[in-house]
């Protein structure tokens, strides 16, 4: 079991994960934060402003890096005292590989890439994991911890990590853009903006919950919405014309995935 996780950089993503763990009833003493700028920590969670303070406490057996990938090179030297041989280094840093983590924190017990999304806050995030150097016990400890935030899985091929990041880590951003566009389209065609936003959100919420609970795939479900000779088919035809939506999303995921390699190159 991971007794204490030190979250180094607790902004949007680290904060959402911490909120998810606490909402699930985890003991706040199981977590500590090192962040020079976070206004305050949740009740019962220790907040360190400097690495030396966390080092002196020496209470953690894992760290989770939650700062920006572009900061890895400058911050790693100052974090060596926190990443000794009894400490597992977990990282949220998009694009940064296990090999880069091992090079940045060579003394650590093992290295884990972690890719959640913001739905960790409500324990509904997929969490994709990739490790280097962990034994079976440490693998189980990581899976158990991250599974609290939704559904954690090990990926067996790190070459696909940037792609799953684009799909599951960045994915909420694309879904939010879609909801916004749906509401914007209805507004342009004459609906009041507030009503359009409310209906678009409720529709996406209901549709996604139904798909999650259904044995049928989303393609089949779309066909079930489209009554023969009815209205929906006309709209689906617009999305399907020349595989317009499919092509747009392939380009969206490609651009997102490829940025991962660029971030890795810069680190
Ligand atoms: N936002 C998202 O939905 C997701 C983000 N990620 C990853 O999470 C990481 C953080 O992203 P966000 O939370 O969006 O960024 P953010 O800017 O909200 O959070 C970064 C945090 O790092 C802290 N920080 C800055 N310098 C620091 C230092 N020297 N020591 C300790 N902490 C320091 C900041 O004060 C801030 O709280 C990135 O590596 C990103 O790739 C991964 C999956 C999803
Ligand atoms: O935009 C980013 O780089 C991070 C990684 C996945 C979601 N947010």
TrEMBL record:
It catalyses: L-proline + NADP(+) = (S)-1-pyrroline-5-carboxylate + NADPH + 2 H(+); L-proline + NAD(+) = (S)-1-pyrroline-5-carboxylate + NADH + 2 H(+). It is an enzyme of class 1 (oxidoreductase). Pathway: Amino-acid biosynthesis; L-proline biosynthesis; L-proline from L-glutamate 5-semialdehyde: step 1/1. Residues 7-85 form the Pyrroline-5-carboxylate reductase catalytic N-terminal domain. Its EC number is 1.5.1.2. It comes from the Bacteria. NADP(+) binds at residues 8-13. One of its GO terms (cellular component) is cytoplasm. GO terms for biological process: L-proline biosynthetic process. GO terms for molecular function: pyrroline-5-carboxylate reductase activity. The keyword Nuclease does not apply. InterPro entries: 6-PGluconate_DH-like_C_sf (IPR008927), NAD(P)-bd_dom_sf (IPR036291), P5C_Rdtase_cat_N (IPR028939), P5CR-like_CS (IPR053790), P5CR_dimer (IPR029036), Pyrroline-COOH_reductase (IPR000304). Residues 158-263 form the Pyrroline-5-carboxylate reductase dimerisation domain. Catalyzes the reduction of 1-pyrroline-5-carboxylate (PCA) to L-proline. Belongs to the pyrroline-5-carboxylate reductase family. This is Pyrroline-5-carboxylate reductase. It comes from Erythrobacter sanguineus.
């Amino acid at each position: 079991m991971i007794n204490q996780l030190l979250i180094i950089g607790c902004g949007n993503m680290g904060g959402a994960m911490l909120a998810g763990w606490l909402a699930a009833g985890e003991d706040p003493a199981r977590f500590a934060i090192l962040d020079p700028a976070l206004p305050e920590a949740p009740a019962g969670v220790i907040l360190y402003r400097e690495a030396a303070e966390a080092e002196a406490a020496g209470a953690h057996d894992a760290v989770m890096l939650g700062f920006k990938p572009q900061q890895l090179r400058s911050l790693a030297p100052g974090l060596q005292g926190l990443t000794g041989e009894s400490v597992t280094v977990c990282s949220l840093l998009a694009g940064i590989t296990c090999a880069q983590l091992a090079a940045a924190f060579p003394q650590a017990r093992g290295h884990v890439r972690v890719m959640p999304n913001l739905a960790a806050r409500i324990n509904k995030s997929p969490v994709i994991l990739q490790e280097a150097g962990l034994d079976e016990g440490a693998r189980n400890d990581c899976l158990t911890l991250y599974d609290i935030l939704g559904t954690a899985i090990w990926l067996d091929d790190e070459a696909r990590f940037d792609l799953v990041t684009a799909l599951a880590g960045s994915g909420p951003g694309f879904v939010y853009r879609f909801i916004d566009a749906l509401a914007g389209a209805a507004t342009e065609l004459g609906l009041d903006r507030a009503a359009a936003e409310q209906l678009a959100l409720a529709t996406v919420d209901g549709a996604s919950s139904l798909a999650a609970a259904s044995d049928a795939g989303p393609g089949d479900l779309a066909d079930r919405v489209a009554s023969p000779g009815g209205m929906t088919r006309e709209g689906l035809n617009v999305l399907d014309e020349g595989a317009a939506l499919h092509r747009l999303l392939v380009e969206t995921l490609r651009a997102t995935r490829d940025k991962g390699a660029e971030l890795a190159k810069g680190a």
